[in-house]
Input
Amino acid sequence: MRRVLRALAVFVTLGLLAASLPAHAAKYRYGRKSGDSGGVIVLLEGGLYNPRNTDAVAATIERVEDFGGGTNELSPVLPVWDDEATGRVGLGYVWGEGQRLMASYWSFASEQSAAGDGPDSGRLHFAVGPPIFTGGQYVGDNATPGFFSIETEVEAEVIDLDWSRSYDTSESFQLGWSFGLRYATYSETTQGVYDEASSSSPSLGQVRYAAFKSNESEAFGARVAGRGSFGIGYGLSVEGEIGLSLLDNQIDSLSRLAPVGTVNQPTTPVARATASDDGRSGTIFDVELVLAWTGRGDTLRIYGGWRQSVWDEVTRDLVRNFPGTSAPLEDRTSVTFSGYVLGVAFRL
Output
Protein backbone atom coordinates (compact mmCIF):
# COMPACT_ATOMS: atom_id res chain seq x y z
CA MET A 1 0.00 0.00 0.00
CA ARG A 2 2.80 2.41 0.80
CA ARG A 3 4.37 1.77 -2.59
CA VAL A 4 1.09 2.57 -4.31
CA LEU A 5 0.73 5.83 -2.38
CA ARG A 6 4.28 6.84 -3.27
CA ALA A 7 3.63 6.03 -6.92
CA LEU A 8 0.44 8.06 -6.93
CA ALA A 9 2.21 11.00 -5.30
CA VAL A 10 4.91 10.96 -7.98
CA PHE A 11 2.38 10.68 -10.80
CA VAL A 12 0.29 13.55 -9.41
CA THR A 13 3.38 15.75 -9.06
CA LEU A 14 4.51 15.04 -12.62
CA GLY A 15 0.99 15.52 -13.90
CA LEU A 16 0.81 18.97 -12.32
CA LEU A 17 4.21 19.75 -13.79
CA ALA A 18 3.03 18.64 -17.23
CA ALA A 19 -0.05 20.83 -16.91
CA SER A 20 2.11 23.88 -16.23
CA LEU A 21 4.63 23.18 -18.99
CA PRO A 22 2.49 24.20 -22.00
CA ALA A 23 2.01 27.73 -20.66
CA HIS A 24 5.67 27.90 -19.64
CA ALA A 25 6.82 26.74 -23.08
CA ALA A 26 4.49 29.11 -24.87
CA LYS A 27 5.90 32.03 -22.89
CA TYR A 28 9.59 31.37 -23.45
CA ARG A 29 9.65 29.11 -26.60
CA TYR A 30 12.68 27.19 -25.31
CA GLY A 31 14.44 25.40 -28.17
CA ARG A 32 11.66 26.00 -30.66
CA LYS A 33 12.58 26.43 -34.27
CA SER A 34 10.78 28.75 -36.62
CA GLY A 35 7.75 26.93 -38.00
CA ASP A 36 7.63 24.32 -35.20
CA SER A 37 4.30 24.02 -33.41
CA GLY A 38 3.23 22.30 -30.21
CA GLY A 39 -0.08 21.06 -28.95
CA VAL A 40 -2.03 18.49 -27.02
CA ILE A 41 -1.81 14.86 -28.25
CA VAL A 42 -4.62 12.35 -27.87
CA LEU A 43 -3.86 8.63 -28.39
CA LEU A 44 -6.47 5.92 -28.99
CA GLU A 45 -5.37 2.33 -29.59
CA GLY A 46 -7.04 -1.04 -29.89
CA GLY A 47 -5.58 -4.48 -30.31
CA LEU A 48 -5.89 -8.25 -30.13
CA TYR A 49 -3.57 -9.70 -27.48
CA ASN A 50 -2.77 -13.17 -26.20
CA PRO A 51 -1.12 -14.15 -22.90
CA ARG A 52 1.74 -16.60 -23.40
CA ASN A 53 3.99 -18.73 -21.18
CA THR A 54 1.43 -18.71 -18.35
CA ASP A 55 1.88 -22.47 -17.82
CA ALA A 56 -1.62 -22.51 -16.32
CA VAL A 57 -1.81 -26.31 -16.06
CA ALA A 58 -5.31 -27.55 -15.23
CA ALA A 59 -4.31 -31.16 -14.53
CA THR A 60 -1.77 -33.80 -15.56
CA ILE A 61 -3.00 -36.98 -17.23
CA GLU A 62 -0.94 -40.14 -16.70
CA ARG A 63 -1.66 -43.09 -18.95
CA VAL A 64 -0.19 -46.36 -17.72
CA GLU A 65 0.61 -49.50 -19.70
CA ASP A 66 2.03 -51.69 -16.93
CA PHE A 67 3.44 -54.54 -19.00
CA GLY A 68 6.53 -55.34 -21.00
CA GLY A 69 6.72 -53.23 -24.13
CA GLY A 70 4.10 -50.81 -22.77
CA THR A 71 4.50 -47.03 -22.54
CA ASN A 72 3.66 -44.77 -19.60
CA GLU A 73 2.80 -41.24 -20.74
CA LEU A 74 2.37 -37.95 -18.86
CA SER A 75 0.42 -35.13 -20.52
CA PRO A 76 -0.13 -31.76 -18.79
CA VAL A 77 -3.44 -30.18 -19.75
CA LEU A 78 -2.68 -26.65 -20.98
CA PRO A 79 -5.83 -24.88 -22.22
CA VAL A 80 -5.40 -22.51 -25.16
CA TRP A 81 -5.75 -18.77 -24.63
CA ASP A 82 -7.86 -16.99 -27.24
CA ASP A 83 -6.97 -13.55 -28.61
CA GLU A 84 -8.76 -10.87 -26.62
CA ALA A 85 -9.54 -7.24 -27.40
CA THR A 86 -7.46 -4.73 -25.48
CA GLY A 87 -7.06 -0.97 -25.50
CA ARG A 88 -4.73 1.89 -24.65
CA VAL A 89 -5.46 5.58 -24.24
CA GLY A 90 -3.00 8.42 -23.87
CA LEU A 91 -2.87 12.16 -23.34
CA GLY A 92 0.19 14.33 -23.72
CA TYR A 93 1.79 17.51 -24.96
CA VAL A 94 4.39 18.05 -27.67
CA TRP A 95 6.88 20.90 -28.03
CA GLY A 96 9.29 21.91 -30.75
CA GLU A 97 12.53 19.95 -31.24
CA GLY A 98 10.58 16.68 -30.98
CA GLN A 99 10.00 16.84 -27.22
CA ARG A 100 6.91 15.17 -25.79
CA LEU A 101 5.37 14.32 -22.43
CA MET A 102 2.80 11.51 -22.55
CA ALA A 103 0.66 9.70 -19.97
CA SER A 104 -1.01 6.44 -21.07
CA TYR A 105 -3.12 3.60 -19.68
CA TRP A 106 -3.35 0.01 -21.01
CA SER A 107 -5.48 -2.86 -19.72
CA PHE A 108 -6.04 -6.49 -20.66
CA ALA A 109 -8.24 -9.37 -19.49
CA SER A 110 -8.61 -12.95 -20.71
CA GLU A 111 -9.81 -16.31 -19.48
CA GLN A 112 -9.61 -19.95 -20.48
CA SER A 113 -11.07 -23.19 -19.17
CA ALA A 114 -10.75 -26.94 -19.50
CA ALA A 115 -12.73 -29.95 -18.30
CA GLY A 116 -12.47 -33.70 -18.77
CA ASP A 117 -11.96 -37.16 -17.34
CA GLY A 118 -8.76 -38.98 -16.52
CA PRO A 119 -7.83 -42.25 -18.23
CA ASP A 120 -9.34 -45.57 -17.11
CA SER A 121 -5.86 -47.11 -17.01
CA GLY A 122 -3.89 -44.41 -15.27
CA ARG A 123 -4.29 -41.39 -13.00
CA LEU A 124 -5.43 -37.81 -13.08
CA HIS A 125 -3.03 -35.59 -11.11
CA PHE A 126 -4.47 -32.42 -9.60
CA ALA A 127 -2.55 -29.22 -10.43
CA VAL A 128 -4.22 -26.57 -8.25
CA GLY A 129 -4.32 -26.42 -4.46
CA PRO A 130 -2.10 -27.94 -1.78
CA PRO A 131 -2.79 -31.65 -1.17
CA ILE A 132 -4.49 -32.33 2.17
CA PHE A 133 -2.58 -34.32 4.80
CA THR A 134 -5.00 -36.41 6.86
CA GLY A 135 -4.97 -39.87 8.38
CA GLY A 136 -1.21 -40.19 7.83
CA GLN A 137 -1.39 -39.65 4.07
CA TYR A 138 -2.10 -37.04 1.42
CA VAL A 139 -5.45 -36.82 -0.33
CA GLY A 140 -6.58 -34.41 -3.02
CA ASP A 141 -3.43 -35.07 -5.08
CA ASN A 142 -4.70 -37.48 -7.77
CA ALA A 143 -7.54 -39.81 -8.70
CA THR A 144 -8.36 -42.81 -10.88
CA PRO A 145 -9.92 -42.10 -13.29
CA GLY A 146 -10.96 -38.70 -11.92
CA PHE A 147 -12.63 -35.60 -13.33
CA PHE A 148 -11.59 -31.94 -13.51
CA SER A 149 -13.14 -28.59 -14.45
CA ILE A 150 -10.77 -25.63 -14.09
CA GLU A 151 -10.95 -21.99 -15.22
CA THR A 152 -8.12 -19.42 -15.21
CA GLU A 153 -8.47 -15.65 -15.60
CA VAL A 154 -5.63 -13.19 -16.22
CA GLU A 155 -5.84 -9.41 -15.87
CA ALA A 156 -3.09 -6.82 -16.35
CA GLU A 157 -2.81 -3.05 -16.52
CA VAL A 158 -0.05 -0.51 -17.09
CA ILE A 159 0.16 3.23 -16.41
CA ASP A 160 3.08 5.07 -18.04
CA LEU A 161 4.35 8.62 -17.79
CA ASP A 162 7.11 9.20 -20.34
CA TRP A 163 9.27 12.10 -21.49
CA SER A 164 10.60 11.56 -25.00
CA ARG A 165 12.67 13.34 -27.63
CA SER A 166 13.33 12.55 -31.27
CA TYR A 167 16.03 13.63 -33.71
CA ASP A 168 16.15 13.73 -37.51
CA THR A 169 19.42 12.04 -38.44
CA SER A 170 18.69 12.25 -42.17
CA GLU A 171 15.85 13.13 -44.50
CA SER A 172 14.23 9.72 -44.05
CA PHE A 173 15.57 8.41 -40.73
CA GLN A 174 14.69 9.49 -37.21
CA LEU A 175 15.95 8.29 -33.83
CA GLY A 176 14.47 8.93 -30.41
CA TRP A 177 14.60 7.98 -26.76
CA SER A 178 12.31 8.21 -23.77
CA PHE A 179 12.43 7.75 -20.02
CA GLY A 180 9.74 7.84 -17.37
CA LEU A 181 7.77 5.99 -14.73
CA ARG A 182 5.70 2.81 -14.93
CA TYR A 183 3.07 1.31 -12.64
CA ALA A 184 1.90 -2.22 -13.50
CA THR A 185 -0.46 -4.75 -11.95
CA TYR A 186 -0.97 -8.44 -12.71
CA SER A 187 -3.72 -10.71 -11.43
CA GLU A 188 -4.13 -14.43 -12.12
CA THR A 189 -6.98 -16.45 -10.61
CA THR A 190 -7.62 -20.17 -11.07
CA GLN A 191 -10.61 -22.01 -9.66
CA GLY A 192 -12.65 -25.11 -10.25
CA VAL A 193 -13.21 -28.66 -9.01
CA TYR A 194 -11.51 -32.06 -8.98
CA ASP A 195 -13.41 -35.30 -8.44
CA GLU A 196 -12.17 -38.83 -7.77
CA ALA A 197 -14.84 -40.28 -10.08
CA SER A 198 -15.33 -39.75 -13.79
CA SER A 199 -18.11 -37.55 -15.13
CA SER A 200 -20.13 -40.63 -16.15
CA SER A 201 -19.76 -42.44 -12.83
CA PRO A 202 -22.73 -42.70 -10.43
CA SER A 203 -20.31 -41.82 -7.58
CA LEU A 204 -19.48 -38.41 -9.11
CA GLY A 205 -19.66 -35.75 -6.42
CA GLN A 206 -19.04 -38.04 -3.47
CA VAL A 207 -15.29 -37.29 -3.15
CA ARG A 208 -14.85 -33.85 -4.63
CA TYR A 209 -12.49 -30.93 -3.99
CA ALA A 210 -12.90 -27.22 -4.72
CA ALA A 211 -9.59 -25.76 -5.86
CA PHE A 212 -8.54 -22.11 -5.84
CA LYS A 213 -5.34 -20.21 -6.57
CA SER A 214 -4.48 -16.54 -7.01
CA ASN A 215 -1.35 -14.47 -7.67
CA GLU A 216 -1.67 -10.68 -7.28
CA SER A 217 1.28 -8.43 -8.17
CA GLU A 218 1.90 -4.67 -8.01
CA ALA A 219 5.03 -3.12 -9.51
CA PHE A 220 6.45 0.38 -9.78
CA GLY A 221 9.67 1.68 -11.28
CA ALA A 222 11.44 3.36 -14.19
CA ARG A 223 11.24 2.76 -17.94
CA VAL A 224 13.69 3.64 -20.71
CA ALA A 225 13.22 3.07 -24.43
CA GLY A 226 14.84 3.70 -27.80
CA ARG A 227 12.92 4.25 -31.02
CA GLY A 228 13.75 4.40 -34.72
CA SER A 229 11.68 5.47 -37.74
CA PHE A 230 12.48 5.03 -41.43
CA GLY A 231 10.42 6.99 -43.95
CA ILE A 232 9.46 5.13 -47.12
CA GLY A 233 7.51 7.92 -48.84
CA TYR A 234 3.95 9.24 -49.11
CA GLY A 235 3.84 9.86 -45.37
CA LEU A 236 4.53 6.18 -44.60
CA SER A 237 7.25 4.97 -42.24
CA VAL A 238 8.42 1.77 -40.61
CA GLU A 239 8.94 2.26 -36.88
CA GLY A 240 10.36 0.14 -34.10
CA GLU A 241 10.84 0.52 -30.36
CA ILE A 242 12.65 -1.43 -27.64
CA GLY A 243 11.91 -0.59 -24.01
CA LEU A 244 12.94 -1.90 -20.61
CA SER A 245 11.24 -1.32 -17.26
CA LEU A 246 13.08 -1.97 -13.98
CA LEU A 247 10.48 -2.51 -11.27
CA ASP A 248 10.11 -3.13 -7.56
CA ASN A 249 7.10 -5.30 -6.93
CA GLN A 250 5.05 -7.15 -4.35
CA ILE A 251 3.35 -10.51 -4.91
CA ASP A 252 0.53 -11.85 -2.74
CA SER A 253 -0.46 -15.45 -3.40
CA LEU A 254 -3.06 -17.84 -2.06
CA SER A 255 -3.92 -21.45 -2.80
CA ARG A 256 -6.73 -23.50 -1.23
CA LEU A 257 -8.13 -27.01 -1.55
CA ALA A 258 -11.40 -27.78 0.23
CA PRO A 259 -13.43 -31.02 0.37
CA VAL A 260 -16.95 -30.40 -0.96
CA GLY A 261 -18.16 -33.95 -1.72
CA THR A 262 -20.99 -35.65 0.10
CA VAL A 263 -18.56 -38.27 1.50
CA ASN A 264 -15.32 -36.38 2.12
CA GLN A 265 -16.60 -32.99 3.31
CA PRO A 266 -17.65 -34.14 6.81
CA THR A 267 -14.34 -35.91 7.56
CA THR A 268 -11.57 -34.12 5.64
CA PRO A 269 -9.89 -30.82 6.63
CA VAL A 270 -9.17 -27.87 4.34
CA ALA A 271 -5.63 -27.13 3.09
CA ARG A 272 -4.58 -23.51 2.62
CA ALA A 273 -1.25 -21.99 1.57
CA THR A 274 -0.25 -18.31 1.43
CA ALA A 275 2.84 -16.45 0.28
CA SER A 276 3.58 -12.73 0.35
CA ASP A 277 6.84 -11.16 -0.83
CA ASP A 278 7.36 -7.39 -0.73
CA GLY A 279 11.06 -7.54 -1.56
CA ARG A 280 10.96 -8.61 -5.18
CA SER A 281 12.26 -6.95 -8.32
CA GLY A 282 11.28 -7.61 -11.91
CA THR A 283 11.41 -6.33 -15.46
CA ILE A 284 9.11 -5.70 -18.40
CA PHE A 285 10.77 -5.90 -21.82
CA ASP A 286 8.80 -4.28 -24.66
CA VAL A 287 9.30 -4.69 -28.42
CA GLU A 288 7.19 -2.94 -31.05
CA LEU A 289 7.20 -2.89 -34.86
CA VAL A 290 4.58 -0.87 -36.75
CA LEU A 291 3.80 0.71 -40.11
CA ALA A 292 2.64 4.31 -39.66
CA TRP A 293 1.13 7.05 -41.81
CA THR A 294 1.62 10.66 -40.75
CA GLY A 295 -0.45 13.50 -42.18
CA ARG A 296 0.86 16.85 -43.30
CA GLY A 297 2.00 18.98 -40.39
CA ASP A 298 2.21 15.93 -38.07
CA THR A 299 -1.34 16.58 -36.83
CA LEU A 300 -2.55 13.02 -37.49
CA ARG A 301 -0.78 9.66 -37.20
CA ILE A 302 -2.33 6.26 -37.94
CA TYR A 303 -0.35 3.10 -37.24
CA GLY A 304 -0.69 -0.65 -37.05
CA GLY A 305 1.62 -3.53 -36.27
CA TRP A 306 2.84 -5.96 -33.62
CA ARG A 307 3.88 -5.55 -30.00
CA GLN A 308 5.21 -7.93 -27.34
CA SER A 309 5.85 -7.43 -23.63
CA VAL A 310 7.72 -9.95 -21.48
CA TRP A 311 6.87 -9.61 -17.76
CA ASP A 312 9.66 -11.34 -15.84
CA GLU A 313 9.45 -12.06 -12.07
CA VAL A 314 6.51 -9.64 -11.79
CA THR A 315 4.27 -12.61 -12.63
CA ARG A 316 6.00 -15.43 -10.73
CA ASP A 317 3.65 -18.13 -9.42
CA LEU A 318 4.49 -18.60 -5.72
CA VAL A 319 1.86 -21.26 -4.94
CA ARG A 320 2.59 -24.47 -6.83
CA ASN A 321 4.39 -27.77 -6.08
CA PHE A 322 3.48 -28.33 -2.43
CA PRO A 323 4.42 -31.36 -0.28
CA GLY A 324 2.33 -34.28 -1.46
CA THR A 325 2.04 -33.06 -5.05
CA SER A 326 2.08 -36.19 -7.21
CA ALA A 327 2.99 -34.48 -10.52
CA PRO A 328 5.18 -31.39 -9.88
CA LEU A 329 4.94 -28.53 -12.37
CA GLU A 330 7.65 -26.44 -13.99
CA ASP A 331 8.37 -23.15 -12.25
CA ARG A 332 6.62 -20.17 -13.82
CA THR A 333 8.62 -16.93 -13.61
CA SER A 334 7.34 -14.86 -16.54
CA VAL A 335 4.29 -14.17 -18.68
CA THR A 336 4.31 -12.62 -22.16
CA PHE A 337 1.61 -10.46 -23.73
CA SER A 338 1.77 -10.14 -27.50
CA GLY A 339 -0.53 -9.24 -30.34
CA TYR A 340 -1.53 -6.84 -33.08
CA VAL A 341 -2.38 -3.20 -32.54
CA LEU A 342 -4.10 -0.43 -34.50
CA GLY A 343 -4.03 3.12 -33.26
CA VAL A 344 -4.50 6.78 -34.04
CA ALA A 345 -2.85 9.85 -32.51
CA PHE A 346 -3.93 13.38 -33.30
CA ARG A 347 -2.71 16.77 -32.19
CA LEU A 348 -5.20 19.40 -31.11
